[in-house]
Amino acid sequence: MRPDDRERGAVLVIVALSLGFLITITAVTVDLGRLSLRRRDMQAVADVVALDMARLVNGRTTQEILTESDPSWTDSLDQSAARNDFSSSKLGYTFGDMNGSTFVENNAAAHRPTAVQITATDDIAYFFAPGGGEVSRQAVGSLGDSACFTVGSFAAAITATPTSFLPGLLNSALGVDIASYDGLANAQVTLGDIASNLGLGSPTDLFNSTVNERDFFIASAQALSQAGDTADAAVLNSIASQTRSTSTFQFGDLIAIQQGGQDAALSSAFNVLDLVAGTAFLVNGSSALAIPDLGVVLPGLASATASVSIIQRPDRACTGVNETPGATTSQLALTLDLGVQAGPFAVANVEITVDMASATGVLVDPLSCGPPAIVNVNVQGSLVTTSINQTILGVTTTLVPPAHGVGASIVSFTLPPDSYDQFKRTGSGSIGLATTDLSVLAPGVQVSLNASLPIIDSLLVSPLFSDFAGLTVAGADVAAHSTSCNDVLLAK
Q1: Backbone angles phi, psi at 95, to 5 degrees
Q2: Helix, strand, or coil (residue 451)
Q3: Phi then psi for 398, rounded to 5 degrees?
């Protein structure tokens, strides 16, 4: 017998044995696919009907919603189902309220619900498996209130009178004398006016444009002049005359606007010095300025240099109550590079970074469209942290002390007497290096830094964060722009 005679017919046997399994798997796959598709259909129906019916939840009690004829709850439910080629008999509803992202049922007749949960149910017959199944999906439509607000950058929102430290840091970037800063710090201009003077007709044009720095300053000056502020317009024209005609920046890098908020942002007022200083730092390529020499002799230090990073991005948010992430401010960071005598022959390189991270604003209750309108923003102050890296003979030790300036507060607007686009400042805390626990560092480094850090605080850290930036640590500048009540929303 030839060797392959014994294998003759083996393929047929294998196929016969596998055929039942393959048919079963195919049948299950087809039925599961139809089930999954029907679930998506039911979710779509529930979503649309929930939005339709939430419009009837308009401050009335549950009894009034169900019994009043104008509009009729039953008729409205039938019409919504018919528009979606569905039967209203397969729709269920429950009244209640939203607690954050959770629907809380409350069908009491006297209750005034703010949300309705719609349940869409359908039966499906299986093609292959015996019988069928039921598909049910839910959606919640609610009436929600929202407001648009901005959390601005502390980095150049100067309210304190600038000190002698300011010209040494910024004159090379802005080219104006110290007396001019006070005026710019108190001037306001709208993005719409700037866009108009730049010849940009739409929000998209503005936020997607590469803008010439000189043209930007001239357009801002024209906006101030058109508003009657000729003194500050003259300062901006002076800045423009000293600006390179080839310097450009992306406008979207200067101000971050959430998707859908571009149109409203054009009418928002921004601090002129915020815009001018932020532009100056953007166009130099690194958003940072270097101070090559602190200009003082510090005990135990062989060298000392500093750099400042100012990232200027006011953030705008239009959200409902307790919706996150809200709006977030930018940060200001100071980096010190110190050569410290750690022993008779060793010099340690010590890098100290003082970082002011973001502050986040979230809309909280109470919120009202008024009049008067009420807008409350909970500002969670950013952590101001210090990081110290010590390197001796190639070995690095890192120290991260406890954060400074942790704070939180509620910024409240009552409109009127408060005004839209009016900034309020909030925050608490202080920044300093002198109280840092240096025990993990080398003894020689500890001695030198303990003597030097109080001097650095008084000469650099305090003037930079307090006098130059006018900072209230762990806070933000907050402005309310608009309110919207009884919006129909699909709960998440």
Answers
A1: -95, 155
A2: helix
A3: -110, 135
Q: Identify how many contiguous H helices and E strands the chain contains and give both numbers.
A: 14, 22
Residue whose token pair is 């130099």: 284
Terminal CA-CA length for the chain: 73
Buried b (16+ CB within 10 A) or exposed e, 79-99: ebbeebebeeeebebbbbbbe
How far is Cα 117 from Cα 139, in angstroms, rounded to an integer? 6
- The contacts of residue 466 (CB under 8 Å, 6+ apart) are 160, 431
Q: Are 385 and 355 in contact (CB under 8 A)?
A: yes
Do 334 and 451 contact (CB within 8 A), yes or no? no
Burial class from Cβ neighbours inside 10 Å (0-12, 13-18, 19+) for residue 58 reads middle
Query: Quick one: tokens of 294?
Result: 């602190």
Nearest CA among 441, 428, 427, 434 for reference residue 460: 434
Instruction: For residue 463, say if its preceding peptide bond is cis, omega within 30 degrees of 0.
Output: no
Q: Write down the pLDDT at residue 405.
A: 53
Instruction: Tell me how crowded residue 455 is: count the other CB atoms within 10 A of its CB.
Output: 17
Longest dimension (CA), the chain: 111
CA–CA dist 79, 86 (Å, integer): 10
CA separation for the pair 147, 361 (Å, rounded): 12
Profile the chain (492 residues) by mean pLDDT over runs of 10 residues: 57 67 66 78 91 86 89 91 91 88 89 91 75 84 84 45 41 45 68 83 73 86 89 82 75 59 60 67 50 55 67 69 72 73 76 70 85 88 72 83 67 91 69 72 82 75 55 66 81 66
